[in-house]
């Protein structure tokens, strides 16, 4: 019951209007709008990148020019005008800082409003926070502690300068530059993001997290995250997003690549709560993300957990390539859509190695006039003997104007492997609500409790503080949409 | 003899059609549909793997071969299809040779008053009215070149018409024969089934081929159920191993009607079937079951769609697959629940048994739901026989090979056992036994 009381408190405190709608006034050194080779050269020059990085970008850009924006997802939106986007922006003042005192107080105040005071987290949560403000890292904490353990955790721009051999080896190795339209775009113009390298045999001493935030109207944000866990290494990475309220749609096309070598274990959790547009579907973020991990070595494990509650349009399929024998892939997802939100999300599990296992638990909740789709692929290759997959995707509909869809693609070419998939769609049982009301809960509390129960399998995979946040988020999001 | 030409893929059907002898049935409804279809064949392009619904299935076996139009006259004799005759339907067997009704081979006895089974060309006025109302309107496939092609070239239509409040006790057997003994041919089989209010009938649609040559068969069947009608439709595809069979099985359900459809796929090199059930009235029930057996280099593809357009309906779909050899099975089962179609109970199950190293199964169950007060679920599995079950049988003295056959046979029977025609169940049981290698005796037949 503790979760519920917490949710209760939040519900009464917060109106369901997006509470993070504000902008921080800052000076930007802006780029001209649009994209061409000169822009890319300029991005690369400003970031002082080596020649191979520029080549990578230019190659991606040329691929991108030949590609078309995908229209197969089950979403409708006004396609962004790619000539009207500013592809690079960064706060003007950005010297590297050792302590928080050196950080621009205005930025700190923004985080304060978001409820993520850095110093408090530093003290209480023991979490190193690599905060991406617009596109450039402004504060990195706990760096020293991580360095002692041998873990490299920094912004990707920094990694390109200081660990070029690692970046060069792994960037684009999981998601090639020509993988898809948005990944190609990201590869060409990515401004910053996080880089994490956990060396052989090291268990990362703390959970890593990054808070992303879009702050400049009309500026697309293109993060690039690269996480590498060497043999036997372990790391848990958390990512959370909120964005201010704007009327023009903003594009977000991130790329996340995970590489797990032999016996490595990577856990990647996301809570996504970007601006979804107003009640009439005006504005909101386009979240077109490519996330993929590869279990390169034997017995490697990659686990994706996501709670998707924001964005006007979500297009996201965190995937795992199970290449090593006995490797494990997991995907736990809660996707909630309300008002005019649209989500087309799911996963891909590609079994290539022997005795590989994957689990997919996906929970979709649609309310208002939203559309929520699960799209997944489970593929068992010819050589993946003894592999197993278990998938469950459940959808819940709240109200008669929303839609829930499932598009699972299941393929097997191996006769010693097995795949199980099940999906259900239903509404909240009236008898369940009645029972809870009879025990003294009001209708919204009852629904909140049922929804939390529905999502429990996923929430239990989240680190504790995120689980609390996720529970709150769902209650706030659904407030007023039932009854 | 007409010369077979090699055509380009994109205009394959169009070219085939242009080289076809213009068919003419004299039935207004059919000819009107044909007029539209002819323009559609020209306009709609041949599907390529870029079409989402054709991504998994290659039509190479079709467009890399050339076919000539099957002759209307053919010397098919009764002995060519005696082995598939149904004892129960001895009084109601319609034989279509290369798409054309054959009065000599068909045996249609006295049907109850107002009922009709035979060619659309000789059909009485009541049947003509039904054709005018619904012919080619049930098979609502947009942009589908194959249905258009079938409509454009069909030489005849087999019609079963069941009058109001009549129950036809014996099944009606429609045998579609393609005669490929002399050359590579293509033909179009077309069936139209109409059940008036409170009628009840069982129709078995059978497909076989003669000869060793490859042939291309497009088959379209349409079933209309008026209010409270009960129709059971069984499609048995036992074409020759060189056949390419592309078919549509469409149905339109009235209020309170009950439609049970079973599709059994045994033959053909490439089989593509698209069942489409439009549940456009309340309280109706649809069953869309299927059994697919593939081995050798067979490809069997089922793309079904069950469209719940009105509230308070139920549907059930069980699609079972056994893949052996280098066989390949594709399944895409769509269930739509439209806005305001509340209180729908839809269930779909797809089970695939992969028996050999080189067989391949692709499945995509798909739910699209726009109403909130519904109960919809689907399940899909790809796997093998249970080791425990095999072990149990072995402990009882059954050899492993026999146990595999026994269990595979049992697995397949789940679909067959619901078919309400004993002789057909028997024939199919033997076909499954032959496929699985199981030795069965009379008491094993369901």
Quick take:
The complex is a heterodimer of chains A (483) and B (446). Chain A is built from 13 helices and 22 strands. By secondary structure, chain A is α/β, with parallel strands linked by helices.
Outline the structure in words.
The complex is a heterodimer of chains A (483) and B (446). Chain A has one domain. Chain A has 13 helices and 22 strands. Chain A has helices at residues 2-13, 37-46, 51-66, 105-114, 118-125, 143-149, 156-162, 164-170, 181-189, 430-438, 443-454, 456-459, 464-478, and strands spanning 128-133, 136-140, 152-155, 194-198, 208-213, 224-229, 234-242, 250-252, 255-260, 265-273, 285-295, 301-308, 313-316, 319-322, 328-337, 342-345, 348-351, 357-367, 371-380, 388-398, 403-412, 418-427. Mean pLDDT of chain A is 80; it is low at 1-16, 91-97, 119-127, 133-139 and 211-220. Chain B is built from eight helices and 21 strands. Chain B has helices at residues 12-18, 28-43, 60-63, 125-134, 145-153, 387-395, 400-416, 422-436; strands at 68-69, 92-97, 100-101, 107-108, 116-119, 158-162, 172-179, 185-195, 200-210, 215-225, 230-237, 243-253, 258-265, 270-279, 285-294, 299-308, 314-323, 328-337, 345-354, 360-369, 375-383. In chain B, the strands form two sheets. In chain B, strands 2, 3, 4, 7, 9, 11, 13, 15, 17, 19 and 21 form an eleven-stranded mixed beta sheet that branches. In chain B, strands 1, 5, 6, 8, 10, 12, 14, 16, 18 and 20 form a ten-stranded mixed beta sheet that branches. In chain B, strand 2 and strand 3 form a beta hairpin. In chain B, helix 2 (28-43) crosses helix 5, helix 6 packs across helix 7 and helix 7 runs antiparallel to helix 8. Chain B is globular and about 65 Å long. Chain A binds chain B through residues 72, 380, 382, 395, 397-427, and chain B through 52, 339-340, 342, 352, 354-384.
